[in-house]
Amino acid sequence: MGNSFGNIFKLTTFGESHGSSIGGVIDGCPSGLKIDLNFIQNELDRRRPGQSNITTQRKEADQVELLSGIFEGVTTGSPIGFIISNNNSNSRDYDNLKDVYRPSHADYTYQEKYGWRDHRGGGRSSARETACRVVGGAIAKQILKQKNIEILGFVFSVGNIFANEKLIDFSKITKIRDSNMVRCPDEKSATKMIDLIKDLKAKGNSVGGQIKCIMKGVPAGLGEPVFDKLQADLSKAMLSINAVKGFEYGSGFDGSKMFGSDHNDEFIATPDGVATVSNFSGGIQGGLSNGEEIYFKVAFKPVATILTSQKSIDNQNNNIEIKVSGRHDPCVVPRAVPIVESMAAMVIVDHLLRNRTTRL
Amino acid sequence: MGNSFGNIFKLTTFGESHGSSIGGVIDGCPSGLKIDLNFIQNELDRRRPGQSNITTQRKEADQVELLSGIFEGVTTGSPIGFIISNNNSNSRDYDNLKDVYRPSHADYTYQEKYGWRDHRGGGRSSARETACRVVGGAIAKQILKQKNIEILGFVFSVGNIFANEKLIDFSKITKIRDSNMVRCPDEKSATKMIDLIKDLKAKGNSVGGQIKCIMKGVPAGLGEPVFDKLQADLSKAMLSINAVKGFEYGSGFDGSKMFGSDHNDEFIATPDGVATVSNFSGGIQGGLSNGEEIYFKVAFKPVATILTSQKSIDNQNNNIEIKVSGRHDPCVVPRAVPIVESMAAMVIVDHLLRNRTTRL
Amino acid sequence: MGNSFGNIFKLTTFGESHGSSIGGVIDGCPSGLKIDLNFIQNELDRRRPGQSNITTQRKEADQVELLSGIFEGVTTGSPIGFIISNNNSNSRDYDNLKDVYRPSHADYTYQEKYGWRDHRGGGRSSARETACRVVGGAIAKQILKQKNIEILGFVFSVGNIFANEKLIDFSKITKIRDSNMVRCPDEKSATKMIDLIKDLKAKGNSVGGQIKCIMKGVPAGLGEPVFDKLQADLSKAMLSINAVKGFEYGSGFDGSKMFGSDHNDEFIATPDGVATVSNFSGGIQGGLSNGEEIYFKVAFKPVATILTSQKSIDNQNNNIEIKVSGRHDPCVVPRAVPIVESMAAMVIVDHLLRNRTTRL
Amino acid sequence: MGNSFGNIFKLTTFGESHGSSIGGVIDGCPSGLKIDLNFIQNELDRRRPGQSNITTQRKEADQVELLSGIFEGVTTGSPIGFIISNNNSNSRDYDNLKDVYRPSHADYTYQEKYGWRDHRGGGRSSARETACRVVGGAIAKQILKQKNIEILGFVFSVGNIFANEKLIDFSKITKIRDSNMVRCPDEKSATKMIDLIKDLKAKGNSVGGQIKCIMKGVPAGLGEPVFDKLQADLSKAMLSINAVKGFEYGSGFDGSKMFGSDHNDEFIATPDGVATVSNFSGGIQGGLSNGEEIYFKVAFKPVATILTSQKSIDNQNNNIEIKVSGRHDPCVVPRAVPIVESMAAMVIVDHLLRNRTTRL
What we know:
Number of domains of chain A: 1
Oligomer: homotetramer
Helix content of chain A: 25-40%
CATH architecture of chain A: 4-Layer Sandwich
Largest sheet of chain A: 5 strands, antiparallel
CATH class of chain A: Alpha Beta
Radius of gyration of chain A: 21 Å
């Protein structure tokens, strides 16, 4: 269970890292959308392994094949099925992991839950699954483009190196965000981040980081006020991504330290309509978008695959020493940017569609 | 839409702060549970306004009436309907708010979404709705008690005053957490928090805070691995609570600054079974509980109702000055502890039930 | 589980026949609908027991109280909670049924499923629950009225007495259908039906019957093409009503005997738009409405409560003789007309709203 | 929307008759099930076109490829993705249908709903989609086999030719049902049915029919009592199949003509447990299975594709004459037997799993 996301625009995914392919079904995509295949592939390329020398060197073309729901380049309203082949999966690499549990991986919990486990490359727990989210997100983004809604994610921190937002020209961020391999638009910090990641890669270690995401042009009124508040659905979307440990929007955890007199966002009437003077609300009030920029941060832990020796146990409950070798991703956040954006895009499209049913 | 929570154990709520009553329906509660009505009422009392002199002085008895689903004190498997009367709602207090939008409230966004708004006391957007969540949570907790699962929330911070966890004896937390009115088990910090809140109350200002929640005894294997990861559902549950700005579990945002070699939780075989040496994972790996303590933090913003004059607009887009008078909650976190626990309890019960369908 | 109906316009109900009240929540009702309370009550009156001398003499006022979601007479988009008090429930009437299973009732199956049973008046299995559906339906009908969609149910047969549809002036059916107490607009057949029911009432026996329902003005394109075909959702809606044994739409079971050359509905262009020459399709093609009249029939079994002695068992598996006394409904179909209409109305409203998300 | 079926055991499908492939995802299949691939293929073969000379001669191998969710032959609890290639789809056959609406097909309604249509072979509205249901059903049946539940469908009628159930030895039906190409276990009637179908095939005409389905070994207590009654979910499942016009279970429409004194099923205690003397209830009481045989009938209309000339319109609203040529299925019921069984099997598995959450 739990392999579907969304209420109206709904993505269902399947596939393990070492099966023949992964894939999914997008149900509820409106008819009449001209599909830009290159854009989808480009988004997948932003996520795929081996894209730069600070990511894992595992090579996957991640070529998506759309199987249905599109006729003469335009969506028909029928579900869009798709698959992405697994090419570079050498299952034998994982033979030595069959009977042991890697620390901070899902090996142990899967075994406990299901009593049966595809140990090859993490099976279903592999972040390879997120490629399917990027396909869903890339289609959602094409809907958003029609509505002049833009979603911009970038790397905000790697370890203790934080971007200086004052140095970022957000009007140029669309181009800038992918201008360097770590996807941080503050070039100075980006250089430090890249150096740190390279160093950790050489050492077989890993490091965490944060992604910030900004959504521009979201109209007021999106979200459902009680349990499906816009921030609630965004938060679930983010925490469903592998390695994510936290989510905050608007003033976030810092907001918990503030006084109401400083935190409240005063309204102001402008020639262009209603605006707020500050935006500690993060563009959402009472669970509903208010037309201001929506922004949030997502915290990623250091990936669990490291190449140093660790203590662990096997499936007979014996204490063992484990050492994983081979390719690894020293820091997941550069590749996670399109995943964060994709999940956010699907949330917004879902609520755009839900919102159409609000008024008589 | 969006007034239901949960997949199998599902709570649906209704009601505005100034209608005749609020209430809800709990569907999917298993049959055979002996219901302790006093416990439910006690939980509601932990949330209700007017419970101490650091909360709003609005008085509500918050007496719950269970209308169905229980026969001779035991659940029948049929839905449990309930209502809580609204007694202390003086709608005329809000007449002056009919045509204006309070800063950082839901007034403006509701108007934009629905084109029609019950302005009295925030209507559906009022945190009064959370009383129904506490009813659902109080029943969920009774199920968890049968499974020896305990959920303990406490106030971790108010403004910049943080509890010192080293001073907290968690084995005694059940009693301790409500031993003071701010629900912080570090007595020294609690005193400071209370002083701060009293000061802000006098000034008509408000302050944010954080709640930490610990879940003990959750068996390994709960959660659904992809979109309904246990942390994803917990996160959505928390962000659906009024005034919440952030969620983190395990190492959280701090984890994003760490190296994998420090963050990984090594497994160790013990006479009592599998354990981890550290618990940066926060008791969840690959979206599934691993049997360790689950812990998370929730950040609350300062409540928007403050008694000082603020700039805002009316519904004709005129810039105005607004000043709210009357009763207010200077800091929401002490009363929010049972809400956080309730939402967490419902998530765990839901996943306990979902998990029964996992294996052949 | 299973106490909610609908995807967007969603009704959740609770309550047993002998609790203090029954009730429900309507989530997803659009904002801006002026609610006509008299109409809702009038619909409940069409269903309530004791309305004529061919129904059970159990008296229930069935006064509905709307608790939320409406402000100054207009829906706000928030959930509409409601309760209906149970007044005439004498639980002691059922003391002798505590340990026995009545034939063709739900006593045995509830006991097997839940291991615990509210035996008073059938508990949750009582058709009293359908009053809540009529509330949902009465609100749905007010939405449909705005869209010029009309739903007309009438009694098509009682036992072997069938209405002669040629004698019915369907342009007058709105008035006619309730012009007699059996709700059959063919007056001649109606008289025979009434006589039969009176005779069976005197004998303590019961009889089945069929309801036909016609929907006029449904626009083309409602329904979702694969699993949520319009007829599939209508069928589920009908089979969820107590005592229903069958559903057919358009040509129905008779259609299974026909040849394609006779059954196909040829299209014809008319000044008013597209029409079909015949309507064996029943207004639905490929799961989607085509703009023609939608019509279907629903078969009800004779109600299981009869006053003659029957063989059965007790909960210790002893063969016993059972004799129920008191009030009973000799034929359920006259009272079931508003229930059928209500379920149909909710299906159409739900699909009207779903359909808004179809196109870009 | 509407391309998913089931609550816990959930099938999502995609694909048009003339895309590269159709396929689906089964989510919620329990782990630990040994998958018999031959059985799945065999079930597909029972449905596939070209299997005998009374079906369409369109040839499709209907080879299913399972892509995920199975490791070393056993289900892992992860979603099972699958595809079936479309081989024999000659899209040019349909060029002449691009701008016209075939009578009683879904051409017109799809165009009205979506404003855009894949006209090739009916696109998504093609019954080709049901192959994916058979994959889901074939896996569901393997679960049912473990629980000793058997689902047996057979052709009950073709046009006006009805099977004589007295002549059928139901203890042998598993073998018998597929012993002839029309899948009617009354051999005498089967011969007549086959002759009729051959005659209609030669004439380019079509005929309807009925399928009866029997479920043995379903334990008492399955179903959810109000909206998700077992018969309600079965009914929806059946009416979601292309060409189905009606559903009845137990006494069905005939039951509407009966008296309660004849219709009630008296309970009797037997050495093997509780039984009923008659079974007009069709194995379901109060929406829950009672342990007796569940049986129901499904009515199919004559398929709309006939080879004679018909009046219709084009998409410019001109009256036209239309004549379809090529391959067609003169009677759909023989091929529909595995589809009916598959949908029934998925309903039962879903309720088996849901039922696990009923009691504390």
